[in-house]
Amino acid sequence: MFKRLRQRAAEPELMDDFAKGGPELREALRHLRRLNRIFAAAAPTLLGVRRLWMEAGRPASLSILDAGSGSGDVNAHLLNWADRNKIAMTITLVDLTEEACVEARILFRNEPRVKVIRKDLFALQEGIADVVTGTQFVHHFPEDELPGVVERLLDVSRLGVVINDIHRHFIPWSAVWLTARLISKNPYIRHDGPLSVAKGFRSSDWRKLQLALENPHMTYSWRPLFRYAVVIQKTSPTILP
Q1: ω before 225 within 30° of 0 (cis)?
Q2: Is the separation of the CB atoms in 199 and 123 below 8 Å?
Q3: pLDDT tens-digit profile, the chain (241 residues)
Q4: Which alpha helices (H) appear in the chain, and where do they start and end?
Q5: How far is CA 235 from CA 102, 159, 191, in A?
Q6: First to last CA, the chain
Q7: Which neighbouring-strand residues pair with 114?
Q8: DSSP character string of 16-28
Q9: Dihedrals phi, psi of 141, to nearest 5 degrees
């Protein structure tokens, strides 16, 4: 089964084909929010952001940049956490597709703390956010490109990076395959949902990344439901007021 998952991982995701899109992709982004709620997708991101915030001395304000954000729904949980802890939080959602940006603007239309920009990760200015997050983002890149992508995420951040991505295993693959068919007829969801799991990670992949980055401040942990929370603190983090 594990071999078959690795074979499937070589397939392209429909969402990575920027020549397509339109209403069908926008619908997929809305249905993806349902999957994220069912599988508690926001929890590892919140865990990592909270950890970097505490390491920085619990600053009164915190800026987040969500790379490859899609419609950015997981960030609603960060805002709720910030409200509970009286943190002045701002969030920038960054995605390459216009469909994702449109859906994000609709979702957060009444939230002045959130702004949405359409931009490539490698076109972003260095050090523009305290914490950079990537939720179900880095599995879109080939293994040989992953260290460079994560280094770029670190460049954009002042404190560090939080990666939240999927555990490659037949149990979550089966669960996502079934759930995607129960909640949606959208071809993006039915194809990309299970494929995202096949493109996911095991602990050995994170160890390899840590060696490539040569960053002793990188930690990773398995979280429910079949996810990894990866926290990478900058070697000389900025202590915020």
Answers
A1: yes
A2: no
A3: 545 555 555 566 667 655 576 899 999 999 999 999 999 999 999 999 999 999 999 999 999 999 999 999 999 999 999 999 999 999 999 999 999 999 999 999 999 999 999 999 999 999 999 999 999 999 999 999 999 999 999 999 999 999 999 999 999 999 999 999 999 999 999 999 999 999 999 999 999 999 999 888 999 999 998 999 999 999 665 555 5
A4: 2-8, 23-38, 43-55, 75-84, 98-107, 146-156, 170-183, 187-198, 203-213
A5: 36, 9, 39
A6: 50
A7: 91
A8: G-TT--THHHHHH
A9: -105, 145
CA dihedral 20, 24, 25, 27 (to 10 degrees): 180
Angle made by CA atoms 99, 101, 103, in degrees to the nearest 5: 70
- CA dihedral defined by 82, 119, 100, 160, rounded to 10 degrees? -30
What residues are paired with 227 via a beta bridge?
166, 223
Backbone angles phi, psi at 138, to 5 degrees: -75, -20
| 3-class DSSP string for 189-231 | HHHHHHHHHHCCECHHHHHHHHHHHCCCCEEEEEECCCEEEEE
Partners of 219 in the beta sheet? Answer: 231
